[in-house]
User: What shape does this take?
Amino acid sequence: MTRISFENVSWEYRTGEGLAISNVDLDIESGSFIGITGPSDAGKSTFCRLVPGYIPHYFDGDLEGSVRVGGREVSEASIGELAERVGMLFENPFDQLTGASTTVIEEVAFGLENLGLERETIVERSVESLRRVGIEELIDRNPQRLSGGQSQRVALASVLAMAPDVLVLDEPTSQLDPHGAEAVFEIVAGMKDQGYTVIVVSQRLDRLTPHLDRLLVIDEGEIAHDGTPQEVFTTPGVEEVVDVPQSVRIGRRLREEEYVDSGGIPLTVGAAIEELRPQIESAADGGSAATADPVAEVERSANDPRVAFENVHHVYEGV
Ligand code: ADP
Assistant: This one.
């Protein structure tokens, strides 16, 4: 069980211009699933680097305040000690992979070799990590000959092999094609159920939002918003710093214009469609709908978020 706490934390890179993180105070409960979003250069990566101790261990600068992971002050703990608690996945898998392994299993086992474990344990843990990310079949493949999505999963398996209970994922899908990104998101969404504390940074959180316990918005080095996704996305002015999901925008407009008076704003395409169903049905009954059978059309498109949103918009315009 690893609780993370930030007490009045500020950090300035030696070569930077001012504070990259400023006066951050927060606690992250063990087992929670936290999303972090915000504009570019806001300090999101810097925040991530503080959790496994990369800051201050690998970066030059001035740290103020206290970052504790499992009660241990990160500036006092060794990187090795922290690596057994916190795993970090970078944006680009090629920054993470060693480039020295000839097989995927060798790559995944790399960190474990340095822990001085028995050969059998190393193999067992490596295979189990590959199974967790769904790529056991790549075990003998050359890591240099994989797609971006496969490489990111190998990188994640290498992190999981170290058996951390906190995972920090910094824009884990931004370098991947939609198919690869979807595969990684699916794994990440399932990690909370496996007991991990997950901190994931993304500028577009649509896919993960329904799974999040808490969403932090970092802006200019500070925690600008902190709450459930519902709370954060409905805070006035939040769209200036965050890419608010389209389902939330539609939900907000429906409430503003008093078409819907229920509480929870829809966080997913499916929830937005469900919320619109009565509107669509009454529009169809009144003959004012834009299409012959709008309910069927929206339902047909529900597996394709892009088309579904177009249809939801279309129907909304007709409401
Ligand atoms: P984000 O992840 O939100 O894009 P970062 O944490 O990367 O933001 O950056 C926050 C600020 O710190 C920016 O002004 C950026 O230029 C600066 N910064 C980030 N990394 C470094 C570094 N390694 N050295 C110096 N300045 C940095």
Summary: Residues 185 and 207 are 7 Å apart (CA to CA). The longest helix spans residues 269-285.
